[in-house]
Amino acid sequence: MKSILIIDDDPLIRKTLSSHLAKDKFEVLMAEDGGEGLEQYEQCLPDLVILDIRLPDMDGLEALRLIKEKNKNASIIIMTAYDDMKTTVDAIKLGAFEYLVKPLDHVELDLTIAKAFQVQNLEDKLSYLVEEKQKEYTIDNIIGRSPQMREVFKLIGSVAPTRTNILIQGESGTGKELVAKAIHYNSPFNREPFIVINCSAITDTLLESELFGHVKGAFTDAVCETKGKFEIAGKGTLFLDEIGDVSSSLQSKLLRVIETRDFMKVGGEKVLKTEARIIAATNQNLRALIEKGTFREDLYYRLKVVVIQLPPLRSKKEDIPELVGYLLEKINNELRRNVKKVPPPVMEILKEHTWRGNVRELENALTRAVILAKGDVLLEENLPLEGAEKKILPRELVPIKDVEMNYIQHVLTEMRGNKTKTCRILQISRPTLDKKIKEYDLKI
Ligand SMILES: Nc1ncnc2c1ncn2[C@@H]1O[C@H](COP(=O)(O)OP(=O)(O)OP(=O)(O)O)[C@@H](O)[C@H]1O
Ligand SMILES: [Mg+2]
């Protein structure tokens, strides 16, 4: 049962309001002045407060402020005898949910209460979602006890509460995005957006308007004004992935926004401010790019206030067994399978493989092996490791098209026509598979 606290010095109002609300099956608490109201609030933590703006012992706005101090999410509806715009604005600014004028219209009151509870529900859901995300990106989900990974954990812990720019370096598949998310979701700004922008995936002009937004008419396709990621990110995190691929003209613009926090939309004249934290990532050696003259040194120094270097998997072999266990559990959950046993010789093979694609490659190899497993044991023959390429080489020298056609058909047949599984193994998208099936007239 939801509880509502009425704070009003007029006994008649308390009486009519409480009997009306009790009829609606709310638990009603009452206080006749601000002091008593605050006491009751603290003791009972009601779901909603209906507060008179004129109280004998304190200003209602002051009472509102004190309640919000105790609980910043408190839902408070203000009542007043005067239709005073200034008080309305002040009350809303202080976080009141709504403002009602006395004498109260009960229908309006009921609607306002219903709306307040609806918003509360949404807020609860939102914080639940944030908590879920946080769980997903807790440090516990980053596996590793090797000395290099311990160093990484220490750094994540020390930078998460700050606003410092961070540069994450590491080969492809080493967990750069995973670490960036862990930093964001463990920061005080975890309710703000985490926005990923892949700097190598789109053209220069598109990237610029993605980052900064554009005004209407800035270029041919700019039919309306848009917000850029620097604006959308709010106080959250902007994750600039593949920063090494940014063109030199955009590098200057990035440098400016990082130094001054100022930016302008493409084609715009108004100077906007960004509050986003910047985490950049790259699998390239930025030092080498600087020497080659393709990356600005000043930008490099601005980005690398803190550097997190992620080790390649082959240099932290001791982490492999734990990673295998963790990834298998994740894959089994996703695919509703139960392939949990890894015979020691298979684990040895997994430990000794070079893993050029790092944890991502390991994850893909395990996914494939789980899909192909017949029982609950992970088998060597299902791991696409050394020697696998030889087996699938055609005997004659044929056009690549034939190899592709036969191989896709082979996987489709092995998977008994299951397209989802086939896509996973081939690591291609569903539309691509459908296109190939049509093109080669494959049998499902
Ligand atoms: N230490 C780790 N513990 C658990 N999972 C990991 C770890 N490192 C990487 N992964 C997993 O490996 C996959 C690849 O990680 P991620 O996408 O963060 O890598 P990346 O460095 O951004 O790669 P790329 O350069 O290819 O974009 C993800 O599924 C991630 O969850
Ligand atoms: Mg990545």
Structure report:
The chain is of the alpha/beta class and 444 residues long. It has four domains: 127 residues, Rossmann fold (3-Layer(aba) Sandwich); 174 residues, P-loop containing nucleotide triphosphate hydrolases (Rossmann fold, 3-Layer(aba) Sandwich); 76 residues, Helicase, Ruva Protein, domain 3, CATH 1.10.8.60; 49 residues, Homeodomain-like (Arc Repressor Mutant, subunit A, Orthogonal Bundle), CATH 1.10.10. Helices cover 49% and strands 12% of the residues. The chain has 19 helices and twelve strands. The strands form three sheets. It has a five-stranded parallel sheet, with helices on both faces. Helix 1 links the parallel strand 1 and strand 2. Helix 13 crosses helix 15. The longest helix is centred in the first third of the chain and has 31 residues. The radius of gyration is 30 Å and the shape is elongated. The chain starts with a strand and ends with a helix. The mean pLDDT is 90. The structure holds adenosine-5'-triphosphate and magnesium ion (MG). Magnesium ion binds next to helix 7.
Question: Summary?
Answer:
The chain has helices at 11-23, 34-44, 60-70, 85-93, 106-136, 147-159, 176-185, 204-212, 229-232, 248-260, 286-292, 297-303, 320-335, 344-352, 358-372, 388-391, 400-414, 419-426, 430-440, and strands spanning 3-7, 27-31, 48-52, 76-80, 98-101, 166-169, 194-198, 237-241, 262-263, 272-273, 277-282, 306-309. By secondary structure, it is an alpha/beta fold.
